[in-house]
Amino acid sequence: MGTAAEPYDRVTAFGNQLVQTHVRLRERLDRFRAGEDVPARDLRAHCLTFCSVLTRHHEAEDSAAFPVLAREFPELGPVLDELSRDHELVAGAMRRLTALLDGDTDRDDIRQEVDTLAALLETHLVYEEKKIVAALNALRPDTADAAALRCATTFPE
What we know:
Layout: H1 6-34, H2 40-72, H3 77-102, H4 107-138, H5 146-153
């Protein structure tokens, strides 16, 4: 049987879960980047998988985690707005990359867009970790949106 502190420990893990999700996204991006020399068809499949996972993660943050944080920590409003704008920038880079992979594009152009995506994403993830992990970990166990937070902070499979 669990202790009285156990539910609180579960909730304080939201920020830590987010960091772990970011670690897994970075690992997937590294695997995608390592496959840049595979045939274009295979590279496109890697891209679609990575882009799908990242899109689901960002959509969950925008629809679940960010509204809870905005309600509980109104001072984070500008940060959350910036993070949502980052999601749009990253989505644009993913669309450009997908378009390049759909065409007869030079590998150097593809590599440059992958590098752009990687740089945008790393900057975004670091900023997000610095700005909201502590707030996620500070949420009380009676937060009404605990299930939504769990969805937004765990790795989308």
